[in-house]
Amino acid sequence: MTDPVIDLNADLGEGFGRWHLTDDDSLLSVVTSANVACGFHAGDPSTMRRVCETAAERGVRIGAQVSYRDLAGFGRRAMDVPPDELADEIAYQIGALEVFARAAGSRVSYVKPHGALYNRAVHDTEQAGAIVAGIRRAAGRLPVLGLPGSQLHAAAHAAGLPAVTEAFADRAYTAAGTLVPRREPGAVVHDPDAVVKRSLGLARDHAVTSLDGERVEVDVQSLCLHGDTPGAAALARRVRDELTAAGVRVAAFA
Q1: Residues 9, 225: contact at Cβ < 8 Å?
Q2: What is the 3-state secondary structure (H, E, C) of 99-133?
Q3: What is the mean pLDDT of residues 146-164?
Q4: How far apart are alpha carbons 148 and 127 in whole angstroms?
Q5: Alpha-carbon distance 89 to 17, whole Å?
Q6: Over the chain, what is the mean pLDDT?
Q7: What are phi and psi of 106, to 5 degrees?
Q8: Is this model's pTM higher than 0.85 or not?
Q9: In this model, does residue 229 exceed pLDDT 80?
């Protein structure tokens, strides 16, 4: 048997002007894939450039983290955007990041929706299709990072785009394998020991315990470590070290 392999991704570049939320430099020493905010929920041109340059220097894969146009709500508010308009906005965000990725000697290698758009695309076929249409307008066949079994992945498969399955070590799951909404108690896992334990379980066993105590099977190729939580960089380093010690190879997804 071969050792398990897992990609570690984090949301980076989540600042704007003088406001900085994520410790990009530290996290880019740990993760293998960087979900870079493209200006709609966070991020600005200079931040995008700096993150792309550091990611390229350290061999970290660059991904476009696309969002609803919602700076004030950090992309976490529900919105109804017409599909064709949403597709254009997705393409616009990918194109903006691609400029800085190429200037740094790299490229945008995948796309991941953020926040409310990510959650909406789990169930909403129209919005999921618009995301995929936007990817095709901007970049052809980029892989799509998302929740296993989501409408987003169904739309990606239908369009011939690679679909990469993702899990969250610091978010609670329902028995159906979806994320517990952030507005509900217990939706975010704050205990570092619990995050490490869940990371090991997801990487080795492809399973996690739901909020109501049930074992949930999770097909996972990439593990998300949120960059906007206190102590995120230190926790990410601990997760990576524990995974390596347990025989899990940490590497960017194929």
Answers
A1: yes
A2: HHHHHCCCCEEEEEECHHHHHHHHHCHHHHHHHHH
A3: 97
A4: 17
A5: 21
A6: 95
A7: -125, -155
A8: yes
A9: no
pLDDT tens string 30-62 = 999 999 999 999 999 999 999 999 999 999 999
* Distance in angstroms (rounded) separating the CA atoms of residues 121 and 136: 16
Residues 227 and 233: their CA atoms lie apart, in Å, by 7
Spatial distance between the Cα atoms of 200 and 246, rounded to a whole number of angstroms? 8
Give 112-143 pLDDT, tens digit per residue.
999 999 999 999 999 999 999 999 999 789 99
User: Looking at residue 210, what DSSP letter applies?
Assistant: -
Q: Which residue has the tokens 């390596």?
A: 244
* Cα–Cα dist 217/147, whole Å: 12
Residue with tokens 């600042």: 15
254 vs 115: CA distance, rounded Å: 25
Tokens 């949120």 belong to residue: 226
Looking up tokens 């194109």 gives 95
- 22 in Cβ contact with 30 (< 8 Å): no
Distance, in Å, from the CA atom of 149 to the CA atom of 41, rounded to the nearest integer, reads: 25
Distance CA 49, CA 47 (A): 5
Residue type at 160?
Answer: G
Distance, in Å, from the CA atom of 74 to the CA atom of 71, rounded to the nearest integer, reads 5
